[in-house]
Amino acid sequence: MRRWRDSRVPTTDDRELRRRAQATANRVWTLLRAALNLAFQNERTPTDQAWRRIKPFKNVDRPQSRFLTAEDCRNLIRSAQPDFANLIRACLLTGMRLGELVILKVSDVGPDHVTIRHGKTGLARRVPVNSEGARFFEEMTTKRPPGDAVLLQADGTPWTPMRVSRGLRLACKEADIEPPIQFRQLRTTYGSLLLNADAPLSTISELLGHKDTRMTRRHYAHLLSEKLKETVDDKLPSFS
Length: 240
Description:
Layout: H1 2-6, H2 15-41, H3 49-52, H4 70-79, H5 82-94, H6 98-102, E1 113-116, E2 125-128, H7 131-141, H8 161-174, H9 184-196, H10 201-208, H11 213-219, H12 221-235
Antiparallel strand pairs: 1-2
Helix pairs in contact: 4-5, 5-9, 9-10, 10-11
């Protein structure tokens, strides 16, 4: 298994190429390890020692560094097809993951919040929405059965990763956002806009469903550095 994992990393002197390959190998290995752990839990294999010895490549993940401005977000929504614009808006209003958005039910929407019942961490959480978010979700759910999915394609079918990728690529082209962003960058944009508005890091961490602030700090490392610089510039007195 270690040889298989290592074979995904090319032999090269290009350190950035090697880092990216190692980061991808880590993500693939995480998925495979989860499947192996499930097999062990279901007693399909007598031991889990073989893969427990394999550690991920260290220090190969890079923090997120690309976020949209509020004006970029508005342009993206205007440029997208109406059904896809709803998906974009829902993400920017809640910071929810794509997987959480596509399974959101009408019954999960409250007057000033949405409830995420099956998050990535396995824990349910409630995400408050502002007045714009409350109006948006009310429009999306009025007179609809509780079991309906809130966000559907124009033909009434669920969103798929391929259709999301295609829709976002087209919307970015129309909005002159180059290179095109990935959907997860809408979620991190939600956090960056709150951080730039001086929301506490612990609050952003809870809204995004991170287990603790370490993950949040990693995603917004360079923004936090900028905020520290602003604080020093504004708050530290002169000594001359």
